[in-house]
Amino acid sequence: MATPERVTIAAAGVITPVGQDLEAFWSSLITGASGISQIERVAVDDLRVQRGGEVKKIGRIKDWRGVPDCRASRLLIAAADDLCAQTAFRPLPLDPERVGVVVGTALGGVEEGEKALGGDRRRRRLHGALYDGPGWNLARWLGARGPVITVSTACASGATALAVGADLLRAGEADAVVAGGYDALCRFVLRGFNALRSLTRDEVRPFDRRRSGLLLGEAAALALLTRETDAPRARLGTLLGYGSASDGFHIAAPEPDGRGLERAIRAALADARLAPDDVDFVSAHGTATPLNDRIETAALKRALGPRAQAIPVNSIKGSLGHTMGAAAALEAFMCLLAAQRGLIPPTLHLEDPDPECDLDYVPGAARPARPRVMLSTSMGFGGCNGALVLGAA
Amino acid sequence: MRAPSVRALGLLSGDRPAPGATPILALERPERPGDRFRRATRECLLALAAVDAMLEDGRASRAAIGGDRTALLYVTAAAYGASNREFIERRGGVTHFAYTAPAVVPAEVAIEFGVTGAYGILIGGAPSTLRAIAQAARLLEAGTCDRALVLAVEIFEECSDLYARHRRFYRWPLVETVACLWLEPGAGELQFESGRSGGPGRRAPDVGERFAAAPLADLSERWRDARAGALELSGRWRGEHARLRWSMVTSHARGSAA
Predict the structure, then answer these.
(1) Catalytic: A127?
(2) Res B256: pLDDT
(3) Tens of pLDDT along A216-226?
């Protein structure tokens, strides 16, 4: 079988609870800063857990004319603004018909639905409530007129979006693709996770014996993808492979042995034409729920074999909370920055390792390292498992 | 890319006028035995019914689609609206939140039929479904899977008042539709194209709006006649149009069921 054309991640832009742009995001991860705070934008008085990774101020954009007052859309556009600041990508330097947009989300514009049902009768509210609304708003802001795709593989959505974006390039449907993920904190999701009792009142402690759940966060993360032949010399890295697999087990709980995640990892490595021994670093999904971290550890050990014990594995959800549709894209960018800067961010709040989570989870402080091949894993509602293999620039 | 062949297609189309002033042709909530389905939403149960119909159309057993060599691609524009509304208006219990995720509809199919291969979930109208068929063709061509299911679900009844607010944006009536397409490696060629300029190509002739399910409804009308020849499907959503040109729609002899 022919090797698929490589896709370059030329640059990335983000907005997160720990930083309004990629540099601030990276600095916060390396220094162990936390973006968890009391949630202020929406009412949480009736909820058991009232903290999360809230973005307190959206980006540097002063003029929002022409952009709906939709939180999800504005997060996306703020990340795109960061991306464009680095790449001079707005106004578009190429034919708009050849620029695609692919975004992943778990919630879309659901807050617009809450408003529409709350009596706001504006047409924009209802259209914005459809989950593909924010992606179209981003395309309009960019001026992109190529394919606009929204994927929703729950909390694996960011990974799926990067892979679908790469497919658009390989299929010749676009010459550049802005791809990534987003989700906004709103009453809908905070109420939902409170009802499921998945949220912790403690710190988010991935792989720690005392871990007791996750906290939600909001963010957007976008990459500029190009074919390798079209890529600028300065680049963040390469998307080498992607794999997905369904658990086929339960609508909300992961399969207890992590077989779905294991299949996704194997598929991603096969897609990248690489072996487990090629992997230098793993960015784990690492939500800090009792079940997830144990299952993920087991899946990594089976999929990577002895290599799993020899390489660093981290989770950045202690810093950000679980940013849902944005999580996998943020984690992919963290992997590429780690390779570029020679430092692996620590797993925040990991102090007392769980004996069942016995890999090298980078506790304490950032660690000097120069990974060349990175694996990023994601798991989501509905048994969605995704894995990305990334290459250093 | 190489065209996949159609092994079977299951389709359920609404024919019950929904109560109220909004013209909607609705589907009944299917009954399904088993405690697991006690809390399942209408869209989940309809998705399962579409797969049942597909298996019946293909005269195949459930085992024929199980396992990790089956890919599942799910498409919807708005089927999650009903569950979202139920949760927002606090009619669902604490466990209902999980059902608001679009990913739960294909998850129920994966659980019920043991489908554990590659998957994808696209949110959008008819162009997304045409794209999903093209994506399935690529997965089959690359050997990632041996068969691919393209599942489309659209229901409207629970949000009829919201659609009624914006009557002029839809082709009435809204027709609830669920469909599942079973694709296998085939011969011939498949061409997918999308864009914003130019004409939408041939539009599905039937009256009404089916969002993402429209191309599969169109295909169900035409593929049996087009078995040996070419077929073109097209669709439009939010200003994007897409077209799929499909030669050799099926290489299977489907016998008298066709």
Answers:
(1) no
(2) 35
(3) 999 999 999 99
- CATH number for region B2-257: 3.40.47.10
Q: How far is CA A172 from CA A162, A168, B5, B46, in A?
A: 16, 6, 23, 36
Q: How confident is the model at residue B257 (pLDDT cuts 50, 70, 90)?
A: very low
Q: How far is A234 from chain B (nearest CA, A)?
A: 31
Most A CBs within 10 Å, among B41, B68, B116, B141, to test the A interface: B116
**Smallest Cα distance from A350 to chain B, Å:** 29
Q: What is the pLDDT of residues A104-131, one digit of tens each?
A: 999 999 999 999 888 777 767 777 889 9
**Which of A106, A148, A244 lies nearest to residue B118, judging by beta carbons?**
A244
Where is pLDDT greater, at A55 or B222? Answer: A55
* Among chain A residues, CA nearest to B67: A248
* B110 reaches A (C-beta below 8 A): yes
Position B254 scores a pLDDT of: 47
- Which residue(s) pair with B148 in the sheet? B71, B183
The whole-angstrom separation of Cα A284 and Cα A314 is 6
Topology classification of domain A8-230: Peroxisomal Thiolase; Chain A, domain 1 (3.40.47)
Instruction: Return the structure tokens found at B253.
Output: 């002899």
Over residues B126-158, the pLDDT tens digits come to 999 999 999 999 999 999 999 999 999 999 999
In Å, how far is B192's CA from the nearest CA of chain A? 9
pTM, rounded to two decimals: 0.96
* Strand duo B240-247 + B230-237: pairing: antiparallel
Domain boundaries, chain A: 8-230, 237-392
Partner B contacted by A153 (CB < 8 A): yes
- DSSP code for B67: B
Catalytic residue among A155, A335, A357, A384: A155
Query: Of the CATH numbers 3.40.47.10, 3.30.830.10, 3.60.110.10, 3.40.50.300, which one belongs to the domain with range A237-392?
Result: 3.40.47.10
Identify from B121, B135, B174, B194 which residue to disrupt to test chain A contact, counting A C-beta atoms within 10 A and taking the largest count. B121
Give chain B positions within 8 Å (CB) of A249: 111
Strand bridging mode B177-195 / A176-183: unpaired
Contact of B184 with B70, CB cutoff 8 Å = no
